[in-house]
Amino acid sequence: MDDGKHTTETHLVPAHGTMTLTVVYTNDEATVETTLARFEQLLEIEKHKFVGLDLEYTRANKRKNPPQEIVVVQIAIHEEVLVYHFCRYVKFKFDITTSASLVPLHP
């Protein structure tokens, strides 16, 4: 998915039993916004609110000791999974050392 463009791919992935997951792989911020809005709607109607979250980070380098940065964000609700290639979104970075928010790369 490293084509230098905003890319979105959707795959149906068989899971256990008869369940099929809809997995959206993207590096496009508009797709992320749309998907998160759909997730919010699902959570509004659910009695038991459960969200799966996984963050993948860059490898630690003990010699240079740069802070690890988020590379991929995975969010799952029901049978829908969003895999966001955050490292491809160049406007912002996520700085876990100072806050839990997006920080502009170039203010």
Description:
This protein is of the alpha+beta class and 107 residues long. It has one domain (8-104). Helices cover 16% and strands 36% of the residues. The chain has one helix at 29-45; strands at 8-14, 20-26, 52-57, 70-77, 80-84, 92-94, 102-104. The strands form 2 sheets. Strands 1-2-5-4-3 form a 5-stranded mixed sheet, with helices on one face. A two-stranded antiparallel ribbon has the order 6-7. β6 and β7 form a beta hairpin. Mean pLDDT is 78; it is low at 92-107.
Which secondary structure elements does this structure contain, and how are they paired or packed?
Layout: E1 8-14, E2 20-26, H1 29-45, E3 52-57, E4 70-77, E5 80-84, E6 92-94, E7 102-104
Summarize the structure.
The protein is α+β, with helices and mostly antiparallel strands. Helices cover 16% and strands 36% of the residues.
Poorly predicted spans: 92-107
Order of helices and strands: EEHEEEEE
Helical segment tally?
1
Radius of gyration: 16 Å
The general outline is globular
Kindly report how far apart the N and C termini lie.
28 Å
Which structural category fits the helices and strands? Answer: alpha+beta
- DSSP, total strands: 7
- Domain module count: 1
Query: What percent of residues adopt helix (DSSP H or I)?
Result: 10-25%
Q: Report the major sheet.
A: 5 strands, mixed
In terms of DSSP E residues, the strand content is 35-45%
Strand order of the largest sheet: 1-2-5-4-3
How confident is the prediction overall: mean pLDDT?
A: 78
